[in-house]
Design a protein that fits this description.
Elements lengths: L2 H18 L15 H19 L2 E7 L3 H7 L5 E6 L3 E3 L2 E3 L7 E11 L12 H6 L1 E12 L10 H6 L4 E6 L3 E2 L10 E6 L2 E7 L7 H14 L9 E6 L4 E2 L4 E7 L3 E7 L1
Parallel strand pairs: 1-11, 3-7, 4-14
Antiparallel strand pairs: 1-2, 5-6, 5-11, 5-12, 6-7, 6-8, 9-10, 9-13, 13-14
Helix pairs in contact: 1-2
């Protein structure tokens, strides 16, 4: 089977699974991504297939940026996925748990860009990407365990399926000039009022700007850039929290604000 045919066949299986909210099983060996680069090729094809239902690409999420998440997923490096307009929600949103296979949440520092980070500028420094940020936002990343055993899937297939990404809930933006040092930001995850996890900005690759630089460099390898107005979720400060219907979620990020959602 030609490479392009394999890519499309894998993308169709993944997109169909997501549309139908059915757990994704390991892809047949004939079409499974052979490495992470092929996983990203499949991911782009999945995006094209899902656009009619999820809306335009509005940014990116970065996974596995903290030691706690790298250990949890047994993947020792960052991975990227897409964020789409129709699954970005404002703080206070009420969402349906049945719209996911198994819904979970993560506590994140999101950024919104004021300036482009073009592929031709790579490699990027943390100073470059920091200067391109317009605002920081406290964020709940919504993740979906839509796999029949993610532990055996392997990173290439998880990447092909956007690495658990299922949207986000955003708090009020805080202008970069008004933000505290991100190393000092403490994130606390509360479910139904009880604290269930915490972490700091320093847990995200040493600084969330390092994660943003990684993403910009990663996209540049594909000839792509980040654009003004795009949103980037820089990675979770806490281990993923899996929810039950009725759970109330609140993420508190010191100096940045809070963000809330309820899953009914």
């Amino acid at each position: 089977m030609a490479a392009d045919d394999r890519i499309l066949a894998a993308a169709q299986l993944i997109a169909t699974s997501r549309r139908n909210r059915t757990p994704l099983r390991a892809l047949p060996a004939a079409i499974a991504p052979r490495d992470e680069a092929e996983g990203y090729r499949i991911q782009r094809a999945v995006h094209d297939l899902l656009l009619p239902s999820v809306g335009p690409l509005t940014g990116y999420k970065i996974g596995c940026t903290s030691q706690v998440m790298q250990q949890y997923l047994a993947i020792p490096h960052p991975c990227g996925g897409g964020v789409f307009a129709n699954v970005v929600h404002d703080s206070g949103a009420t969402l349906r748990a049945r719209d996911y296979v198994r819904v979970g949440v993560e506590c994140e520092i999101a950024v919104r860009l004021a300036h482009d980070l073009a592929a031709a500028q790579a490699p990027f420094t943390t100073e470059q990407v920091g200067a391109a940020i317009e605002a920081y936002l406290p964020a709940i990343e919504i993740v979906d365990e839509r796999y029949a055993g993610w532990e055996t899937m392997g990173a290439p297939t998880l990447i092909a399926d956007d690495f658990f990404a299922a949207g986000c809930v955003l708090g009020a933006p805080l202008a970069r000039a008004s933000a505290p040092d991100l190393l000092d930001v403490v994130g606390r995850a509360r479910i139904n009022g009880a604290e269930v996890g915490s972490g700091t900005g320093a847990d995200v690759l040493g600084h969330p700007h390092h994660a943003l630089a990684w993403l910009a460099d990663h996209l540049a390898q594909e000839g792509k850039g980040l654009h003004a107005g795009q949103l980037v979720l820089t990675g979770s400060l806490v281990k993923t929290i899996w929810l039950s219907p009725g759970d109330r979620v609140r993420m508190e990020l010191s100096g940045l604000g809070t963000v809330e959602a309820t899953f009914v």
